[in-house]
Automatic annotation (TrEMBL):
Its cofactor is Mg(2+). Pfam families: PGM_PMM_I, PGM_PMM_II, PGM_PMM_III. GO terms for biological process: glucose metabolic process; purine ribonucleoside salvage. One of its GO terms (cellular component) is cytoplasm. Residues 50-187, 214-318, 329-455 form the Alpha-D-phosphohexomutase alpha/beta/alpha domain. Transmembrane segments: none annotated. It is found in: Cytoplasm. Keywords: Carbohydrate metabolism, Cytoplasm, Glucose metabolism, Isomerase, Magnesium, Metal-binding, Phosphoprotein. Its main location: cytoplasm. This is Phosphoglucomutase. The keyword Isomerase applies. The keyword Isomerase applies. Gene3D superfamilies: Alpha-D-Glucose-1,6-Bisphosphate, subunit A, domain 3, Alpha-D-phosphohexomutase, C-terminal domain. It comes from Coemansia interrupta.
Length: 621
């Protein structure tokens, strides 16, 4: 199945049919063979689904390139063998396995457990529906060797995923993913399809109630004023977006003493078909419309939501002018950070021992807060595998108290009980703040304004261009790095997402964007970082000659460039690993809280990204 020794697609189909014991997926491949649909067979069989730092995520259908019973079995065989080899006493420490409500999630979880049992592992199992944070919580609580959660989070209904946590309770990060991938390749023949007998296996323990109770107890440290919570008149509408969140939300809200939510009836029960939303992500435009409509009818001014596996959180609030403010991921990050600081101070924890982090494409307001208030701060690459592991390191190596971590994609980690984003604890902490503000006659929007007044105004625009042609994407980034004359458009650009670089390539990054001088450049593809671009000589640098190396990991397999400008602007442009998108994250800071100036600069830079950097019109984007 390698590129170096390609085999006939019909040979691959023959192999699949000999291995697959699921009648549904076997029939799908057989029908394609009978129809001689070689293009579809190639798409499904030629290249195996890749195991990355998010584990596996793909559409559910037949083939080595998709998620199905066969690929779940082989992934679990490889993962279990790797964990057994790498972690001392792994079998007795055990593995935690959970799943959400998506189609096939239950059987995928049981097949995962089966593979670990076959190697002698203890399996801590959630047989019913679980929300994602309960798996990393249990890994940490039980001292397990690893954890697996079957979920595709807020992906479309036809997708599923296989999310892996390491022994510290955080998501795996490189190079673990490569080691696991190699082990999966060595165990690519499925051995055991028996998903039914695990229910009676003596090495399987149902941990549902014990871990949920322990989780609720652990979150009690986040309660600020139990009496105020119990006496609040706060009303709010809640939706779990057809996901698993509702019973877990009820449990934590009861523990916090907060009032019950008003549910969106059409969305409150788990439904893997997500019938009322085109895309089950509360971050998407219009995703909260049904909840807002209900709130309007009931004269309620607050809407809160979890995504389907309840690891993300979103909120919207009706303002004084009766319009809805849908908080962005960065705005919620600022609100949570400020609330956490208040709680830490109330507990008498030294602020210089509080650790917070966010992803490098998230707002720099958290950095500004750290500069003013003195807590420990760092930014990381995108994803909670980086954020959580970095905060855990700050706790271990610097003696810090984990306060808060977030990414702009509405993922929040409040406290240290879960080393991953957790939408359920975020829900409780947010409503607790809303209840306190309500008792003072304030809104959460007012609280956000107070933070702007203290730390400066930050305004952002996070958008993307659709670009299904990898060669065109490469040419766009090549021009940004090397200028119009620095590199050929076709000869030196591969027609894949891999970036080819040569030692004599000459870097000619733009010195202005939208008329604003560039002050900082970081290119995590080339491996270049410079904090004061004014010091860069007029002579352009060759790739093989500079010493300005980033502190972040460098990868030639994707594009990622960050620019900062003298007007307080910051742009990060990157390619998506899962979608044909060229994404950008733009933010402008105005230290004087001048909204009009910040907004004007933002619009100039939005146009400059499209016209100067991406050349959207010329490239047909």
């Amino acid at each position: 199945m390698s590129d170096s020794t390609p085999v006939s697609i019909y040979k691959l189909a023959e192999r699949w049919l000999s291995e697959d014991k699921d009648p549904k997926t076997s029939a799908q491949i057989q029908a394609l063979v009978d129809a001689k649909d070689e293009a579809k067979l190639e798409a499904l069989l030629r290249y195996p689904v890749e195991f990355g730092t998010a584990g596996l995520r793909a559409r559910m259908e037949a083939g080595y390139a998709r998620l199905n019973q066969l690929t779940i079995i082989t992934a679990s065989q490889g993962l279990s063998a790797y964990v057994q080899r790498e972690i001392p006493n792994a079998c007795t420490r055990g593995v935690v396995v959970g799943h959400d409500h998506r189609h096939n999630s239950d059987i995928f979880a049981r097949l995962t457990a089966r593979a670990f049992l076959d190697l002698g592992f203890k399996v801590y199992f959630y047989p019913g529906l679980s929300f994602t944070p309960l798996v990393p919580f249990a890994v940490k609580q039980l001292g397990a060797a690893c954890g697996v959660m079957i979920t595709a989070s807020h992906n479309p209904k036809d997708d599923n995923g296989y999310k892996v946590y390491w022994e510290n309770g955080a998501q795996i990060k490189p190079p673990l993913d490569l080691g696991i991938l190699k082990c999966i390749e060595k165990h690519s023949v499925p051995n055991n399809w028996d998903a039914e007998s695990i229910a009676n296996n003596v090495n399987v323990e149902d941990i549902t109630e014990s871990m949920l109770s322990a989780y609720i107890e652990a979150t009690q440290a986040l309660i600020q004023d139990a009496d105020l919570n119990r006496n609040t008149r706060l009303q709010y509408v809640y939706t779990p977006m057809h996901g698993v969140g509702a019973p877990f939300a009820e449990r934590i809200l009861e523990a916090f003493g907060l009032p019950k939510f008003v549910p969106v009836p059409e969305q409150i029960a788990p439904n893997p078909d997500f019938p009322t939303v085109s895309f089950p992500n509360p971050e998407e435009k219009n995703a909260l419309d049904m909840a807002k409509s209900l709130a309007d009818k009931m004269d309620i001014g607050l809407v809160v939501a979890n995504d389907p596996d309840a690891d993300r959180f979103a909120a919207a609030e009706k303002q004084a002018d009766r319009t809805w403010l849908s908080f962005t991921g960065d705005q919620l990050g600022t609100i949570f950070a400020a609330a956490v600081l208040e709680n830490m101070r109330a507990q008498g924890i030294p602020i210089d021992k509080v650790a917070m982090a966010n992803s490098t494409v998230s707002s720099r307001m958290l950095e500004a807060m750290a500069a003013k208030d003195g807590f420990c701060y760092t930014d990381t690459l995108t994803g909670f595998k980086w954020i959580a592991n970095e905060l855990a390191s700050m706790q271990k190596e610097q003696g810090c108290h984990i306060g808060f971590g977030y990414e702009d994609a509405i993922g929040y980690m409040v406290g240290s009980q879960v080393l991953d984003k957790d939408g359920v604890s975020a829900l409780a902490v947010f409503l607790q703040l809303a209840a306190r503000l309500n008792s003072q006659g304030k809104r959460v929007g007012d609280y956000l304004e107070e933070q702007y007044a203290r730390y400066g105004y930050f305004v952002s625009s996070n958008l993307y261009f659709i670009c299904p042609d990898p060669a065109k994407t490469n040419r766009i980034f090549s021009r940004i790095r090397f200028g119009d004359d620095g590199k050929s458009n076709d000869d030196d650009v591969e027609r894949t997402n891999f970036v080819r670089l040569h030692a004599n390539d000459v870097l000619r990054y733009p010195r202005t964007i939208g008329g604003f001088p560039v002050s900082y450049i970081r290119d995590l593809t080339v491996g270049f970082e410079m904090h004061d671009v004014d010091k860069l000589s007029t002579v352009s640098l060759q790739v093989g000659e500079f010493d300005n190396v980033p502190t972040f990991p460098v990868s030639k397999s994707s594009h990622m460039i960050t620019f900062e400008t003298r007007n307080g602007g910051r742009i990060t442009m990157r390619t998506s690993g899962t979608e044909p998108k060229l994404k950008y994250y733009l933010e402008v800071r105005n230290s004087d809280n001048d909204r009009a100036a910040a907004a004007a600069d933002l619009q100039k830079m939005v146009r400059a990204i499209a016209e100067e950097l991406v050349q959207a019109h010329e490239n047909g984007l």
